[in-house]
Amino acid sequence: MKSKTHSHGGNGHDTDGASATGGGGGGGGSSSSPSPPPSPRRHSSISHCRRRLRPVKSISSRSLGTLAAGIMTRRSLRYFFLLPLLYISGLLMCVGPFSAFIGGPPLPGSVYRSHEVFRHLWPAMESDNSSAIVLSSVWKYKRKLREHKACPNLSALHHDQIASPGLNGFLIVEANGGLNQQRSAICNAVAVAGLLNAILVIPHFEFHNVWKDPSEFGDIYNEDHFISTLDGYVKVVKELPEALMEKHNYNISNITNIRVQAWAPVSYYLGVVYPILQSEGVVRIAPFANRLAMSVPPHIQYLRCLTNYKALRFSSSISMLAKKLVNRMIEKSSRSDGKYIAVHLRFEEDMIAFSCCIYDGGKAEKLEMESAREKGWRGKFKRKDRIILPNLNRVEGKCPLTPLEVGMMLRGMGFDNNTSIYLASGKIYHAERYLTPLKMMFPNLYTKESLATSDELAPFMGYSSQLAALDYTVCLFSEVFVTTQGGNFPHFLMGHRRFIYDGHSKTINPDKRKLVLLLDDVDISWRTLKEEMEDMLSESDRKGIMVPRVRKINRKTSIYMYPLPECRCLQQSMADQIDQIRNSE
After folding, report:
1. Residue 119 to residues 123, 327, 437, 442, Cα–Cα distance (Å)
2. How confident is the model at residue 549 (pLDDT cuts 50, 70, 90)?
3. What pTM value is reported for the model?
């Protein structure tokens, strides 16, 4: 039996949607969301158009000429006003970025000069005797608690609104991407299963040549806890029944696969997927990244909350080591009452290569990046339609921050050299060179490799998602989390931190467009940089408690990044659980 692919032409859902890419360690090489689904085509016929036209018996050649002249005149007038506007906007967009090619001065902030700024500021930074910021008092803003209605019995509400009274069949999904893109897919799969009243088979993880992690669901998450937590909402099984497997020749690819477009609405699942599920008893959706719209009914949204914050618990092997790493960070942060900063640093070779940014490595760096791009993406960056503008990327804040830039930013914000910092990252590009200035500014710098023994880490080596899970946990319990490049890893972490810290993400999310301008000035004073960094910290504090309007929720305001107010009914129970974990030792 060949695998069937159901295509539904003319409904706007017959092609695959792009999927958001998460970086190594779940961090995300691109922070941009997939393109939204195209609007359904409007089908019009010639006969329909003809019915709208008044019949004309005959048209003379003179009339045709007059008509053509009128049309041309109107079009000419449009072009007369439109072309100058296009010309001016083209100049504004292109002259700056291409000025370097025509011998003009580079745009402010477009050239990496941070290493020169550091050499200039280091003496003043080292001799600064001003009071250091206290980690326990970093966050000034508090979220105003509103009086909420009592939480309804969502399990009963769910059963009242399911598609049909009986279970309708089995749902199989294949989650792709890194750790947190897979996490998103799992949460969405539970939501879709609840929507269709289907039995969910434990999601399969697609092997990807970027992450190169063969881990399955049970290697990363506790399967039994996942199944038992969702019991009463969505039935979950570890595998398909023997009869169904035999029917499909024990080959999962023989099961009907529905190619769902990105951000498909509830109406699509009820109108297209549901009938197929009922008729065939099992459907498969692959790939399944971002295949469900953010706007769903409250009882379905609750399933996302329940899955993300309660059902998805890391496997015992990951949890045990992660707990040890958190406790060791707390011990090493005794000067600040056990509080520490966690930095998600995206300065790996593949991330730099993908960003097409230029640093201070000269010709050797250029050759290394070209080689990395060819190895990871083959000819993608050499296509004729691909224009690479490294300087513009930097001005627009798209370049990964270097360890040096992170260090200067944090010292400028008021964190002194006694601050303990946990670095969540993959293999740093030219680590010895780029980490040296960061260690000068913050000697108490730790990683999972420095906190754990080689024997403790050995079972996880070669499994990027499992290593990312260790980083995720240590970052989750930090007093301050610093994101430097966007992606799924920080987005999920910010949402998770909002969930457990009374609605505050406690995250420094730097304005990189502003930062590159400041670090472009090699004569900037330490006092000026400090004032600007303190303002940036205050802005991160203010934005940490912001909650978008739920009524206008869309794929830019993800429930995984902004879990409140929909997830508030789980908040208290999870807060109690966090306290138990922290006080257990």
Report:
1. 8, 36, 10, 16
2. low
3. 0.80
